[in-house]
Amino acid sequence: MDSGSEKIQFMASEVIVIITLYAKRY
Question: Can you state the percent helix, strand and coil of the chain, rounding each to 5?
Fold first, then answer.
């Protein structure tokens, strides 16, 4: 398993959560 790809997946999931919370505001 690539630790780099794992980091990218974690960052992507965090970005999705932030976007979802941001979209709920408006």
Answer: 90, 0, 10
Residue whose tokens read 């794992």 = 6
How far, in Å, are 1, 2, 6, 14, 18 from residue 24 at the CA level? 35, 34, 27, 16, 10
Q: What confidence score (pLDDT) does residue 24 get?
A: 92
Eight-class DSSP state of 2? -
DSSP state of 14: H
Instruction: For 1-26, write each residue's pLDDT tens digit.
Output: 567 888 889 999 999 999 999 999 87
